């Protein structure tokens, strides 16, 4: 995912190996992302919990849930918890670019 993000023009990319590490990173006030891409199924803390905790904090970065689950119920659940976008695996450069553009409101 980091490679795909860099391929579409994002240079300042931070990766976390699981949800707990992501939350630790986001607790650092120096780290204020504009957009977060988060896998739904991760060890320790899943993506839905990461999303829920992020939405309780100050600042609301755009949040894209990434998952292999391709059904409307999962997408609706992610949206109900505050996800701005939903990306189905396998992720391609084109699908990543589209969901980021849609989420950020780019044409």
Task: Describe the structure concisely.
Helix content is 42%, strand content 14%. It is an alpha/beta fold. The chain has a single domain, classed as Rossmann fold, CATH 3.40.50.
Give an overview in words.
This protein is α/β, with parallel strands linked by helices. The protein has a single domain (2-104), classed as Response regulator (Rossmann fold), CATH 3.40.50. 42% of the residues lie in helices and 14% in strands. The chain contains 5 helices and 3 strands; from the N terminus they run H-H-E-H-E-H-E-H. The protein has helices at 2-7, 19-27, 47-55, 72-80, 93-104, and strands at 35-39, 62-67, 85-88. It has a 3-stranded parallel β-sheet with strand order 1-2-3, with helices on both faces. The longest helix has 12 residues, at 93-104. It is globular. The model has no long low-confidence stretch (mean pLDDT 93).
Give keywords.
107 residues, alpha/beta, Rossmann fold, 5 helices, 14% strand
CATH H level, superfamily name: Response regulator
Q: Any guess at the CATH architecture?
A: 3-Layer(aba) Sandwich
Elements, N to C (H/E)? HHEHEHEH
Amino- and carboxy-terminal Cα gap: 22 Å
Largest sheet data: 3 strands, parallel
Uncertain regions: pLDDT < 50 for 5+ in a row?
none
The class by helix and strand makeup works out as alpha/beta
Q: Give the CATH class.
A: Alpha Beta
Number of helices: 5
Mean pLDDT: 93
Rg estimate, integer Å: 13 Å
How many DSSP-defined strands?
A: 3
Query: Given the C-alpha coordinates, what overall shape results?
Result: globular
